[in-house]
């Protein structure tokens, strides 16, 4: 397509400074006449490209040219670079190449204001990278996958899933997909997935635009917890909660959407004596019962 060729011509000129029409024609397998028309198109679009004759001549850009606001605004360029920096944190080498090219194309010299690292502190980087890349491949090629999964209740099951999207939320990576075993859409925490296999079977389901909408998260697999936390937990309130209010005594009432299962009890008890479950009532009673049973171990 011409638009792709035009974009690459600009990048080549930024990289090589000067190139002949013959070299461009051979690269794109078109005639030199087509290259001349491309140069006219770029010039008409406001790109300062010019041609010089004689020895050492060819097609060039003005030396101080960068992709300007006629194509993308400064804010749009910054957003693209920032997004690529975030994606590159999962160690995808092709992202690094795109980041390098676009930084050069935009003339960006001050792009080191942000650094994102989604990996954990423990040494499982290569294993996570391989899993992430295999899932990405399966999503793009629309291949069914199978894997062993450990649920929040400690149950190990074999699943076959149509992988639709990789998502990051609450300090964890999730796979969102249609589970053939449960006949419904599900979230799967990547840390709990083992023995991943990409199958030959393909599927045609399309991913939703947004899977972490409040509507989707209030389905069967998630629950809204209302907690009362002491003022000693202020540092965690600001780190972990988006919805909260502080009372006159310094304590907090906070809400959080959390996956159902035994992880709720683990999360509540991580606050020690500084947390009280206000709702839902069934969670409050479940935590109370488990705490009473735990206390029996110390009698």
Notes on the protein architecture:
This protein is an alpha+beta fold and 299 residues long. The protein folds into 3 domains: 2-61, Winged helix-like DNA-binding domain superfamily/Winged helix DNA-binding domain (Arc Repressor Mutant, subunit A); 125-211, SH3 type barrels; 222-296, Alpha-Beta Plaits (2-Layer Sandwich). Helix content is 39%, strand content 27%. It has helices at residues 2-16, 21-28, 32-44, 74-88, 93-106, 125-141, 214-217, 234-240, 263-269, 281-296; strands spanning 18-19, 49-52, 58-61, 143-150, 156-169, 172-179, 184-189, 193-202, 222-229, 243-246, 252-259, 275-279. The longest helix is centred in the middle third of the chain and has 17 residues, at 125-141. The termini are far apart.
> In one word, what is the shape?
elongated
Which residue ranges are poorly predicted, with pLDDT under 50 across at least 5 consecutive positions? none
- Structural class by sheet pairing and helices: alpha+beta
- Terminal Cα separation, in Å? 77 Å
Largest sheet: 5 strands, antiparallel
Rg (CA only): 27 Å
- Strand percent estimate: 25-35%
Write down the domain tally: 3
Strand order of the largest sheet: 7-6-5-4-8
Mean pLDDT: 79
Query: What helical percentage do the residues reach?
Result: 25-40%
CATH topology of the largest domain: SH3 type barrels
- Overall strand count: 12
């Amino acid at each position: 397509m011409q638009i792709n060729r035009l974009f690459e011509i600009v990048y080549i000129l930024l990289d090589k400074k000067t190139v002949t029409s013959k070299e461009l024609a051979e690269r794109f397998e078109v005639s030199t006449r087509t290259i001349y028309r491309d140069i006219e198109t770029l010039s008409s679009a406001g790109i300062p490209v010019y041609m010089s004759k004689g020895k050492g001549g060819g097609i060039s850009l003005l030396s101080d040219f960068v992709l300007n606001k006629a194509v993308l605004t400064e804010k749009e360029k910054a957003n693209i670079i920032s997004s690529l920096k975030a994606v590159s944190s999962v160690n995808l080498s092709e992202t690094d190449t795109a980041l390098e090219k676009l930084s050069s194309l935009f003339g960006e010299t001050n792009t080191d204001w942000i650094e994102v690292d989604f990996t954990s502190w423990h040494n499982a980087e290569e294993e996570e990278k391989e899993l992430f890349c295999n899932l990405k491949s399966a999503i793009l090629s629309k291949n069914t996958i199978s894997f062993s999964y450990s649920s929040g209740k400690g149950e190990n099951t074999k699943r076959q899933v149509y992988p639709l999207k990789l998502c990051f939320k609450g300090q964890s990576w999730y796979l969102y997909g249609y589970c053939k075993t449960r006949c419904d859409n599900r979230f799967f925490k990547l840390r709990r997935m083992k023995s991943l296999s990409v199958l030959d079977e393909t599927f045609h389901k399309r991913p939703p635009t947004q899977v972490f909408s409040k509507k989707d998260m209030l389905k069967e697999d998630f629950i809204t917890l209302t907690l009362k936390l002491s003022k000693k937990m202020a540092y965690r309130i600001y780190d972990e909660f988006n919805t909260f209010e502080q009372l006159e005594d310094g304590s907090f009432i906070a809400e959080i959407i959390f996956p159902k299962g035994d992880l709720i009890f683990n999360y509540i008890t991580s606050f020690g004596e500084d947390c009280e479950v206000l709702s839902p009532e069934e969670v409050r009673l479940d935590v109370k019962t488990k705490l009473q049973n735990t206390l029996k171990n110390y009698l």
